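User: quick one - fold this with glutathione bound?
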Amino acid sequence: MKLLGSTTSPYVRRLRLWLGGIDYDFVALNIFEGEGRETLKRNNPAQKVPLLLDGEQAVYDSRVIFRYLSQKFDRPALSWDQENTLTVIDAANDTLVSLLLLARSGVATDQQALFFTLQHERIERTLSFLEQQVGAGLFEQWDYPAICLFCLLDWVLLRELFDFSACPNLERFRNLHLNQDRVAETDPRNG
Ligand SMILES: N[C@@H](CCC(=O)N[C@@H](CS)C(=O)NCC(=O)O)C(=O)O
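Assistant: Sure. Structure tokens for the protein plus glutathione:
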């Protein structure tokens, strides 16, 4: 079984953190150029990572990969509330990835235009919702939603995309989990 992805992607890292005790190979790709991009294009028409190859079966998208592996290894499915939490985490993450790519493409993302207003509003809303949920004690277990939240927050800090001074619970949550299994070895700052 092979998990293909970039070392910086929070969607890839969540699976690498969760996949303890399961035998697989991690294949690190540069998804934007060269051989890594060719491998991505050959294996996933959606051209996104993560991507799982299990024998002849390819599986795209971290949520679907999580579901596939949960079934394969007889691990519990997420509850509907956990699914909703994951949707909020993914909404924040997708929006921040899009804004980062736009900024890297030379687009001013602070302009007064409907598209940007909607994205900034979504980031504020999703992160303040997650701040409240952490404060209410809903992320006490180191389970898949908590792993996904950690990966989002650590990636946001890496990319310097958000000022966490208004979200002390999120900052505390991220710092609390720095010593969890595989967090250091999957940290893109460590090469
Ligand atoms: N919904 C997808 C999102 C994955 C995603 O956005 N991956 C980014 C890397 S962080 C990617 O592959 N981007 C390539 C592109 O946008 O061209 C998932 O959960 O796997």
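One thing worth noting: Residues 22 and 73 are 9 Å apart (CA to CA).
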